[in-house]
TrEMBL record:
Residues 56-403 form the Amidohydrolase-related domain. Transmembrane segments: none annotated. Gene3D superfamilies: Metal-dependent hydrolases, Urease, subunit C, domain 1. The lineage of its organism: Bacteria, Bacillati, Actinomycetota, Actinomycetes, Streptosporangiales. It comes from the Bacteria. InterPro entries: Amidohydro-rel, Metal-dep_hydrolase_composite, Metal_Hydrolase, Metallo-dep_Hydrolase. Coiled coil: none annotated. This is Amidohydrolase family protein.
């Protein structure tokens, strides 16, 4: 018989989908790694009991755009990370995945590794119980087109046509990669590759999608400009990162894929750069202006309002790990959704929970009978003030697979 754990005296935020959802008093019964029942006053003779003393239980959070290769003290030097000795580097990776878990994140989707097998090594070590960390949908090295952003091949793999791309995808999938990351647009931060540039083409993306699908994996893309977003949507890409510019064509293409495509904006990253948080690290006001990011931020915020109205699902996530978007501050993304994109706090939380599980292909994201018991316990009501999710002192515990994976040492001495 599997272990039974009863969480009592809790307020439960189920993440059912209502924009005005609030936590309500309930107990949660866990059997093995799954949620068995959610209701007030559950009787469960023989179960281990954890009295949560009025704390809020919500699904563990997720981030759909992670780079666990970037160490806790990462600044900007991708080449140095790529060249680091693998042993010490993997210890850095272990510290990063522990930070995710301790920040309430039980699920992450990789958006490209700097040393090729980082996500896979971390996932395996977590699975074997060697280190602590979230569920990982592993990515591999990013893939660029010859001549495109990253196309010099220094930090990415490079394909010239559909056949080569299919081969690269197959090779990564054979290693166990599940979320492949392709660069199909430029990025204002690299002036010779503006965000509106489109790289690859329909035939290449269709080949990549088909090959990934054959392996039970999926394609994610860096796509900032409208034309690249539209191409991703019509060719079967699952996660579109950034989507900073959305014209009517792009929006229509996204809408047609409302059921099996998600947009992951990385709003906080853009906000932080434009707000000057990166200035001490070399992103001077001149460089920010030259990148076009201020215009992209305005456009992305407008786009997020339109995505919401159209019912296109948004995923929380975005490039955390720079010193101005430090590891451990992941839930700042949710704060920006509330402050800038007009979401309710509950809706912002849904981007990291009920939207995340299905996007990752994992049975998580709601506090609901039958789902995996990946849960976060916090003091206070995050639907009243979403910023409490950023406060380490309020994080009581994190459960993964029905087991306490983190207990706040400041609360439970
Ligand atoms: Zn990224």
């Amino acid at each position: 018989m599997t272990g039974r754990l009863l969480l009592t005296n809790a307020r439960v935020l189920r993440c059912t989908g209502a924009r005005d959802e609030r936590p309500a008093a309930a107990d949660v019964l866990i059997e093995g790694d799954r949620i068995a029942r959610v209701a007030p006053g559950i009787e469960a003779p023989g179960a281990r009991v954890a009295d949560l003393r009025g704390a809020t239980v919500l699904p563990g959070l997720g981030d759909a755009h992670t780079h666990i290769s970037w160490p806790l003290d990462f600044v900007f030097d991708h080449a140095a990370v790529a060249a680091a000795a693998p042993g010490p580097h993997l210890l850095d990776v272990a510290a990063v995945v522990r930070t995710f878990l301790e920040s309430g994140y039980t699920l992450i989707i990789g958006a490209g590794t700097t040393q090729p097998l980082d996500d896979l090594h971390a996932r395996d070590a977590i699975g074997r119980g060697l280190i602590t960390g979230p569920r990982i949908v592993p990515s591999g090295p990013m893939i660029a087109e010859v001549g495109g952003l990253g196309g010099d091949g220094e930090l990415m793999e490079v394909a010239a046509d559909a056949r080569q791309l299919r081969e690269l995808v197959a090779r990564q999938c054979d290693l166990g990669v599940k979320a492949l990351k392709l660069f199909i647009s430029g990025d204002g931060v690299v002036p010779e590759h503006p965000s509106e540039d489109v790289y690859m083409n329909d035939a290449m993306l269709e080949a990549a999608v088909a090959e990934a699908d054959r392996h039970g994996a999926f394609i994610t893309v860096h796509a900032r400009g409208s034309a690249s977003v539209a191409m991703a949507a019509r060719t079967g890409v699952r996660i579109v990162h950034h989507a900073c510019f959305l014209d009517d064509d792009a929006l229509k293409a996204l809408e047609a894929r409302r059921d099996d495509l998600w947009v992951c904006p990385g709003l906080h990253y853009l906000y932080a750069v434009v707000s000057g948080h990166a200035a001490p690290y070399g992103m001077t006001p001149d460089r920010v202006e030259a990148s076009g990011y201020p215009r992209e931020l305005t456009s992305q915020i407008e786009g997020l309002h339109r995505l919401r109205e159209t019912g296109i699902k948004i995923l929380s996530g975005g490039d955390f790990g720079h010193q101005w978007t430090r590891h451990g501050t992941y839930a700042a993304e949710l704060q920006r959704y509330v402050e800038l994109a007009g979401m309710t706090a509950a809706e912002a939380i849904h981007t990291a929970t009920r939207n995340m599980g299905p996007a990752a292909g994992v049975e998580t994201g709601e506090v609901r009978e039958g789902l995996l018991a990946d849960l976060l316990v916090v003091d206070g009501d995050p639907t009243e003030d979403v910023t409490i999710l950023q406060d380490p002192a309020r994080r009581r515990a994190v459960l993964k697979d029905g087991t306490f994976a983190y207990l706040n040492p400041g609360i439970y001495p």
